[in-house]
Write a structure and sequence with these properties.
Strand content: 35-45%
Strand order of the largest sheet: 1-7-6-5-4-3-2
Largest sheet: 7 strands, antiparallel
Number of helices: 3
Helix content: 10-25%
Distance between the termini: 44 Å
Radius of gyration: 18 Å
Oligomer: single chain
Order of helices and strands: EHHEEEEEEHEE
Number of strands: 9
Length: 169
């Protein structure tokens, strides 16, 4: 089972607002392009969004269905991956001071991806890499610091414009 977490420097409410917006799914989910509601009202149980997964010249159309949610704290999804079957993805938001600890837990649920031949240590490692990238994207979206407001320090470290020239030593 692939479990990964990340501290996002935004409130749990901010993170939830991104997760609860079906049109923003492709902004933070790695491998997807364009997303739109296909039924129900996201993120209500049974609602679904459709999205495209570009693979070179091919474009696969998949959907993700909400199987569980607790407003503001938990989102349980079933992602369909064509011939590979489906995966269960549980996203939990935990308040961490003024920030949000996001925990993602994913494993194959049905189909070929759940077979012992495909669901192995190597596949778990790939899912971990994907989750690291996905959580980094989610953090960028939620933390919402526009790149135009950033500048480089002499050592190349990025700082927000409001921090530049601040009175902290």
């Amino acid at each position: 089972m692939a479990v990964r977490h990340r501290l996002i420097k935004a409130s749990p409410q901010t993170v939830w607002s991104v997760l609860a917006d079906a049109s923003r799914y492709a902004e933070w989910v790695v491998g997807t392009s364009g997303s739109e509601p296909v039924r129900g009202e996201w993120p209500q149980v049974g609602s679904a969004i459709g999205y495209t997964v570009p693979l070179g010249p091919l474009r696969l159309t998949n959907e993700t269905v909400v199987r569980h949610y607790e407003e503001g704290s938990e989102l349980g999804l079933e992602a369909q991956a064509g011939a590979l079957g489906t995966a269960r993805i549980a996203i939990e938001l935990r308040p961490w001071g003024e920030h949000c600890l996001v925990v993602v837990d994913e494993h194959p649920l049905q189909g070929a991806g759940a077979s012992p031949l495909l669901h192995n240590v190597g596949m778990e490692a790939l899912i971990q890499i994907r989750h690291r990238a996905m959580l980094a994207r989610l953090a960028r979206v939620c933390e919402g610091e526009p790149r135009a407001e950033r500048s480089e320090t002499p050592r190349g470290r990025r700082r927000a414009a409001h921090d530049i020239g601040g009175g902290h030593a």
